[in-house]
Amino acid sequence: MFQVQHGAALYTHLAGAAVVSVILFFALTLVPTKLRRPLIMAVTFAAGLFYALEFFWPVSGPESDQKNFLTSYIKPFSDITTVLQSFALGLGVYSLVSIHMRKVARTQSGWAYSLVLIVSMIVMVIAHIGKEYIKSPWVHQLNEFAYSGLMKSLDATMFSIIAFYIVSAAYRAFRIRSTEATILLVSAGIIMLGQVAIGQAITNAIPNEGLTANLRVENMANWILKKVNSPAIMAIDFGLGVGGLATALRLWLSLERGSYFEEEL
To answer: What is the pTM of this model?
Structure first.
């Protein structure tokens, strides 16, 4: 009895949320064009301000459960973000399908590829979502065939083809033209030799103890990876993090400028 009541309450909440969402989106379409950009800026600023205040506001309580007066609202705000992402995903799927449907209907150049895309999307949606709700073996077999049999195989094939382009680009980059290219070539050669048995066999006669151990190719490769490469990657990640934070602040404060941000909504 409790499960029935709980299910009915859940469906009631879902139906109510759907009705409110439709009304809200309809109301947003009535907003004048000149007010849409300020509205988006205000909502973005308010959302960013909430998370910033929750992070910087002093916390209190036991050490295992320290929070402030905004912490309890993190979950609802996160749920709202998830819903907005779902709407954005649905809008993207609708846009993609509508563009390719028009291409198929008008038999434009490459319409066959658009048809394959649409059919593949329909099959994957039916198979991957249907297996959770349809208790039938053919749905599971279709999902296994479409996902494991086709998609993974096609991904492996695509990345195998890309590997040849990567090797070609690496060859062009490794050609000695400057001091930096020479360092790159030597470092790459040592690391590649240190990762394979035939490369390690070159210095296998050198004792693996004392100062002479530093001359073994695998030890040189490990030194380059751990002492040179890792700090460089950390520095790059730190720079990317600072740049991402700066970009996020500019977006949050509506200071970002460019062709996309200057378009009229």
So the answer is: 0.55
The C-alpha atoms of residue 100 and residue 113 are separated, in whole angstroms, by 9
Quote the CA–CA distance of 28 and 34 in Å, as a whole number. Answer: 13
Tokens of 246: 């700066």
Q: Is 50 left (phi over 0), alpha (psi -120 to 50) or beta?
A: alpha
Q: What is the dihedral of CA 31, 34, 37, 39, to 10 degrees?
A: -40
**Residue 190 near residue 220, CB atoms below 8 Å:** yes
Domain spans, the chain: 109-172, 175-245
Asked if 184 contacts 173 with a C-beta cutoff of 8 angstroms, the reply is: yes
Specify whether the CB–CB gap between 265 and 37 falls below 8 A: yes
DSSP tag of 146:
I
Q: pLDDT truncated to tens, each residue of the chain (265 aa)?
A: 445 455 567 678 778 877 887 888 788 788 888 888 888 888 888 888 888 888 888 888 777 778 888 888 888 888 888 888 888 888 888 888 899 999 999 888 889 999 988 988 888 888 888 777 777 788 888 888 888 788 888 888 888 888 788 777 777 766 767 787 788 888 888 888 888 888 888 888 888 888 888 888 888 999 998 888 888 899 999 999 898 888 888 877 777 665 545 554 4
Burial 135-151 (b: 16+ CB within 10 A, else e): eeeebeebbeebeeeee
> What ranges in 30-151 are assigned the alpha helix state H?
33-56, 74-105, 111-133, 137-143
